[in-house]
Amino acid sequence: MMSKQVTFSLVLLLVGSHLSVTQQTVKAQTPFTPTNTRKSICPAQITTAIDAVVNRPLFNRSRWGIVVKPLSSVQTLYSRDAQKYFIPASNTKLLTTAAALQQLGANFRFRTSIYQNRNGVFTIVGRGDPSLSDTQLKTLAQQLKQKGITQIQQLIADNSYLQGDIVNSTWQWEDVQSDYGAPVNSFILNQNIFGLELRPQAVGKTPQLAWNDNNESRQWLVINRSVTVAEKQPSYINVNRDLTGKVLRIEGQLAANSAPYTIDLPVVDPDYHFLRRFRTALTTEKITLGQTLVSQSGNYPQELASVQSPPLSELVMETNQNSNNLYAEALLLALAGQQPKQQNQNSTNLGVQALKKSLTQLGVDPTGYQLVDASGLSRRNLITPEALVQTLQGMAKTPVANVYRASLPVAGKSGTLTTRLLNTPAEGIVQAKTGTLSGAISLSGYINSPQYEPMVFSIMVNQSEQPASVLRQGIDEIVVLLAQLQRC
Fold this sequence. Notes:
CATH superfamily of the largest domain: DD-peptidase/beta-lactamase superfamily
Strand order of the largest sheet: 2-1-19-18-17
Mean pLDDT: 90
Strand content: 15-25%
CATH topology of the largest domain: Beta-lactamase
Distance between the termini: 48 Å
Number of domains: 3
CATH class of the largest domain: Alpha Beta
Largest sheet: 5 strands, antiparallel
Helix content: 25-40%
């Protein structure tokens, strides 16, 4: 089947972190099949073996940071620039999910509530639930119907739970235009993305555009300059959203009789996107809705209806297994929501403060990282390999150790490692978090070696001109070496 990839103006594919983008990235990874597998390596040989990979001419311009330690020991099996800062990409999520589990607990749930203020006036309060979907909106509408509500004169969306910009100011423009860079705020619905579908027509004709949400279609001026081309021609589509957030430009081509081409894009105004979808849910339950507005009140009478997210144990699974950026950012903002509100402090900064406090209690050196987001999408994040290993070791000693570890992809089995390390000694015994930005690739996690004690490791590569697939292969070779360690 022909591989297709949505590209945006100025885009280099940076992070396959949102679920749909992750799936595309995983499929594109080159499976690693090393030679001379199933051999044994003594600890005394591991430095020479790893150096042989890192010091290849292919990696002359690449900067490597590596540390490998036994899980329950201060001993170091291998170290290279372990105390230096690296751009971590989605390895940042290891710190975010560790702090969230520590501070909020595995049973924490986000709650979305509706309150009745007075006759005909209702307030809905969003608290940043990243899992909220149309299904939960339907549940809320049904609860109101069961309470005898048939008319809402005014619905206020209170978005005061989270403060600050809905898009991190350090994210690059191409990321903000992509579904993996969706905005995060008090109201998150359907992961704050909407879908388009282009269907090929007769050769020379413009492909037909279909929306998965007709409400969203009315928010955009679409300039569609794509064209249907002959069968067996390559298909590619470029989508550009202008700076105003009101114009979509579509260019490219679709082969005749090919499958529809799907595109996911971030919503521009999450609050009103939420209100439009909720109006649809209320209409289905025959509840009429009058005026809607977004405000910040903070004073609510008795709760009338509510829905909750799955427990945090399931949310961190989605965050790490599929490297979901939006989930990671929502978890950081949940940490902020537990802190006292501070004047002139946005929720991201409060969340980072809470994260640092939690990780310091865990034994992680607070000078070992500098964070400006929770997902790793920002290139201003800096983490040392040592800090990542300290986090992994610290979490292994906590009551939520099993939940944390289960959230990580398993080599050759699940998540973003499904197609990596297949048919190698590392398959099934490595649980690790991937990270991908252009020129910055990382992998950190646990190894349950059958012939050696359990280990933790962090491998980070920065400032490289090599393709991500080449850097991953080098990282995977090192992981296979570690998987073959035995006591000698």
